[in-house]
Design a protein that fits this description.
Layout: H1 2-15, H2 21-44, E1 52-55, E2 65-69, E3 72-80, H3 84-89, E4 101-106, E5 109-115, E6 127-132, E7 135-142, H4 146-151, E8 153-160, E9 163-170, E10 176-180, E11 183-191, E12 194-198, H5 205-218
Antiparallel strand pairs: 1-2, 1-12, 2-3, 3-4, 4-5, 5-6, 6-7, 7-8, 8-9, 9-10, 10-11, 11-12
Helix pairs in contact: 1-2
Length: about 220
Amino acid sequence: MVYFIGMFVLGVVALTARGSVFVFLPAALLLFWVERWQQKQDGAFNGSGTGYTSRLSDRQSTGIKQIYRSETIVGSYRRTFEQAWHRWFVAFPKVENFFLNLDFDLSQRELRFEEKAGQRLWSNQTEWMIEEGGETVGDIQTENTVRHAVEFTEVLNMTYRGETYQIRSPRLSRRIEVRRDKKTIATSHRKRHLLTFDVPDLETRSVLLAGMILFRLYFRE
């Protein structure tokens, strides 16, 4: 509903002079309906297959999304915003990955990825702090290099409790892989709105799942 109100207010301000408010209102209502439908579809998802799965169609709201292993819920995640206007801002095309903070509850482990403020105003670097139990335990940052640009590859570097990981994907692929010491240890695929994950049953599986979900939201995969 916040999105609908924000879009309508912006439409009133921008279009009143032209007498087009009543043209904008149906469009705002339609977008609100689509968002609500996406949220309901995500909420109705109850697992698929035998591995780790989640459904991700609504990317802008704060709705809770579940993560399943087969048909058993193993965790959830949700997006959060520091300011109400951040929520309105990301409703516009091409900027839905701004102000990206995520809270995870995975296997009784609570993780928070909090984006450092202000970086995008003066550089193309984005960085998040990883918090667990109120403690800062790592960070994630984009890696923008000429080599990656030539290879059409998107990359995040993640450090978690002293271990370093690289999360990467070719821009023309829906496959994500997590590497440690140049070896692939986890992967994720997307088919429409269904996300699947192949993650080893290690102590770090929660942060690997969380890192790949952040990757999809940030790079709009």
